[in-house]
């Protein structure tokens, strides 16, 4: 009986160790996107590209922004090992002023929570005209 219990423990330990080797890893091409100075009402869509560098499928379970003016969109399907994916972020460029927002990505990766940043400045039409005049 002791041998049987020892064998079961050995198998359970081996299975647990093997399961630990299977991990998804998320690596972003960049963790901050700088919009720079953009005009009010311009295209506010940008993408964060990432790769699953792990050895098991990566599942993005949630993406959340620090305010309602930033709408993130996650991939619905798992990202296979070695494959790339994108988190799309749409900022409401009808809000004039500085952009400083965070998008939090939650997944089954070895680092389960990653904070991404967007920054820049939305200029009103008068500011855009004066910037263009200065540059000419």
Q: What is the first-to-last residue Cα distance?
A: 88 Å
Structural class: alpha+beta
- DSSP helical segment count: 2
**Major sheet strand order:** 1-3-6-5
Question: What is the topological layout?
Answer:
Blueprint: H1 2-21, E1 26-28, E2 32-39, E3 45-52, E4 60-65, E5 70-73, E6 84-91, E7 97-107, E8 113-123, H2 125-135
Parallel strand pairs: 2-8
Antiparallel strand pairs: 1-3, 3-6, 4-7, 5-6, 7-8
Short description:
The chain has two helices and eight strands.
Description:
The chain is 23% helix and 43% strand. The chain contains 2 helices and 8 strands, in the order αββββββββα. It has helices at residues 2-21, 125-135, and strands at 26-28, 32-39, 45-52, 60-65, 70-73, 84-91, 97-107, 113-123. The strands form 2 sheets. A 4-stranded antiparallel β-sheet has the order 1-3-6-5, with no helix packed on it. Strands 2-8-7-4 form a 4-stranded mixed β-sheet. Strand 7 (97-107) and strand 8 (113-123) form a beta hairpin.
Descriptive tags:
single chain; 136 residues; alpha+beta; 43% strand; elongated
């Amino acid at each position: 009986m002791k041998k049987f219990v020892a064998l079961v423990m050995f198998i359970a330990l081996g299975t647990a160790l093997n399961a630990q080797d299977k991990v998804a890893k998320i690596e972003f091409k960049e963790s901050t996107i700088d919009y720079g100075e953009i005009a009010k009402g311009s295209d506010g869509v940008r993408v964060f590209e990432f790769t699953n560098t792990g050895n098991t499928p990566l599942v993005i379970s949630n993406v959340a922004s620090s305010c309602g003016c930033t709408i993130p969109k996650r991939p619905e399907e798992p990202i296979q090992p070695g494959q790339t994916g994108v988190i799309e972020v749409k900022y409401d460029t009808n809000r004039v002023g500085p952009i400083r927002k965070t998008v939090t990505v939650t997944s089954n990766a070895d680092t389960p929570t990653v904070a991404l940043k967007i920054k820049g400045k939305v200029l009103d039409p008068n500011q855009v005209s004066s910037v263009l005049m200065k540059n000419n």
